UniProtKB/TrEMBL annotation:
<feature type="transmembrane region" description="Helical">
    <location>
        <begin position="119"/>
        <end position="137"/>
    </location>
</feature>
<feature type="transmembrane region" description="Helical">
    <location>
        <begin position="176"/>
        <end position="198"/>
    </location>
</feature>
<feature type="transmembrane region" description="Helical">
    <location>
        <begin position="149"/>
        <end position="170"/>
    </location>
</feature>
<feature type="transmembrane region" description="Helical">
    <location>
        <begin position="228"/>
        <end position="247"/>
    </location>
</feature>
<protein>
    <submittedName>
        <fullName>Lipopolysaccharide biosynthesis protein</fullName>
    </submittedName>
</protein>
<feature type="transmembrane region" description="Helical">
    <location>
        <begin position="333"/>
        <end position="356"/>
    </location>
</feature>
<feature type="transmembrane region" description="Helical">
    <location>
        <begin position="389"/>
        <end position="409"/>
    </location>
</feature>
<keyword id="KW-1003">Cell membrane</keyword>
<keyword id="KW-0812">Transmembrane</keyword>
<feature type="transmembrane region" description="Helical">
    <location>
        <begin position="18"/>
        <end position="42"/>
    </location>
</feature>
<dbReference type="InterPro" id="IPR050833">
    <property type="entry name" value="Poly_Biosynth_Transport"/>
</dbReference>
<feature type="transmembrane region" description="Helical">
    <location>
        <begin position="363"/>
        <end position="383"/>
    </location>
</feature>
<keyword id="KW-1133">Transmembrane helix</keyword>
<feature type="transmembrane region" description="Helical">
    <location>
        <begin position="88"/>
        <end position="113"/>
    </location>
</feature>
<keyword id="KW-0472">Membrane</keyword>
<feature type="transmembrane region" description="Helical">
    <location>
        <begin position="259"/>
        <end position="280"/>
    </location>
</feature>
<feature type="transmembrane region" description="Helical">
    <location>
        <begin position="54"/>
        <end position="76"/>
    </location>
</feature>
Length: 438
């Protein structure tokens, strides 16, 4: 490695992290603008129905995409000539899984419980879920191919289109306008971005690659299985609460709950952006682990403290933009949720260490316990303790989980520091072993 390589790598990680965080911020801000406009144009019940449908679709898409984002980040940098086929198979898996989980969802009657009994409801859920599944995966493709700087532009354009389309579509249908305004720009983004990925970025990556590791799906199935389990459990925690609130407390309560919860999910995506940039750079240069993780941890700490401070201070002002009822019902809720941010950030760092080490069993175990306890308590007690009680349960779950994994995270850190000083193993050795998902 030359004397100038380290600064170049350092700038690359930070550039990717800033680009992905900018994307998250743009998505979050435009998402809030969307719901502010929707709240002004529609009654709370219609806003609650649209937000609950979006939560269900996003949850199904999260299950469908098999957490392929992490797989792409971890293995595409070494895929070489196999890059195009590897990404195409990843997309195919996401689409196939999306069809399976969505058909199961509507067959069990959950779709009609949210949107009604019309004959086309299954088609709405299937089409929207497949679209969102690809939308989730394509950011991983862009980032792993060195195109992270395009992610903010993609999300900016999609977010602006959603807000712009909301006005005419709501006029056409107060019931379906908001949901259509969310889905149509997502479909357009999928078509445009993946044309760019396969026609421009994949050929460039293949042309500049110096080698080609074994990234056949059979050789990395252990990692994929463990990573998917972690993703599915995390999606349950992030995306099911709005659906539970709608089912237990009604669509109006779901409307008041959605924006504070949306802020929480957006924060999780924000700090995961830093972890994504770390994983990509580590996959390219494992010897730089100590430098990369220290910079990632400092940036994550800065972002989490800033997000907590701003959310606690600005909660009433933000929610008042939707209306006085939203501020009355959601201010304390948002403030309680914001107190969980530093602990959520700590768990994201633990997740990044687990992915880098390819040791996912402790991560899956921690997420399983958190998901089961949090969602079970919510399902059983929500009607008794209400929205603010739900926020307190979530805060407790985040604190306990972050503290529980701290000793394991320290051990993973020491192992990665030690492995950074040794010659790198071939990619075929680690993922192929069954214990690689542990």
């Amino acid at each position: 490695m030359t004397a100038t390589a380290a600064p170049r790598k350092r700038r690359a990680m930070e550039l990717n992290a800033v680009a992905l965080m900018a994307s998250t911020v743009l998505t979050g801000v435009l998402g809030i603008v969307f719901w502010i406009v929707a709240a002004r144009l529609l009654p709370a019940s219609a806003v609650g129905q649209a937000s609950s449908a979006l939560s269900a679709i996003t949850f199904l898409a999260g299950l469908a995409q098999l957490n392929i984002v992490s797989v792409l980040l971890r293995f595409v940098p070494q895929a070489g000539r196999a890059t195009g086929g590897f990404i195409a198979r990843a997309y195919g898996l996401a689409l196939g899984m999306g069809l399976v989980v969505t058909l199961g969802f509507v067959a069990l009657g959950f779709g009609s419980a949210i949107l009604g009994d019309e004959w086309f409801i299954p088609l709405v859920f299937v089409g929207a879920t497949l679209c969102y599944a690809l939308f989730l995966v394509q950011d991983g493709a862009l980032t792993s191919l060195g195109g992270a700087v395009w992610v903010p532009l993609e999300n900016l354009v999609a977010g602006l289109l959603r807000v712009a389309l909301l006005f005419p579509l709501v006029l056409l249908s107060s019931r379906w306008g908001a949901l259509a305004a969310l889905v149509v720009p997502t479909l357009l983004a999928v078509l445009v971005v993946n044309t760019f990925v396969f026609r421009r970025l994949v050929p460039r990556h293949v042309a500049t690659s110096t080698g080609s590791a074994d990234v056949g799906w059979s050789s990395i199935k252990g990692f994929v299985a463990g990573d998917y389990a972690a993703s599915a459990l995390a999606s349950c925690v992030a995306l099911l609460p709005p659906v539970l609130v709608s089912a237990e407390l009604g669509s109006e309560a779901a409307a008041y709950f959605y924006v504070p919860w949306y802020v929480s999910v957006s924060f999780g995506t924000l700090v995961w952006s830093i972890a994504m940039a770390f994983v990509v750079e580590y996959a390219n240069d494992a010897a730089a682990f100590r430098r990369l993780i220290k910079r990632s941890m400092r940036l994550t700490a800065l972002v989490s403290v800033a997000a907590t401070t701003v959310s606690v201070a600005a909660a009433p002002l933000l929610l008042a933009l939707l209306g006085s009822q939203y501020a009355d019902q959601g201010t304390t809720l948002l403030r309680i949720i914001a107190l969980s941010f530093p602990f959520s950030a700590g768990f994201v760092i633990f997740t990044a260490l687990s992915v880098a080490r390819k040791r996912l069993r402790p991560l899956v175990t921690a997420l399983a316990v958190k998901a089961v306890v949090f969602l079970a308590v919510t399902a059983v007690g929500l009607t008794d303790f209400g929205l603010e009680g739900l926020a307190l349960v979530y805060l407790a779950a985040e604190v306990v989980t972050a503290l529980a994994v701290l000793p394991i995270g320290r051990r993973l850190y020491r192992e990665l520091v030690a492995s950074a000083g040794r010659p790198r193993q071939a990619e075929t050795e680690v993922p192929a072993r069954p214990e690689a998902a542990s």
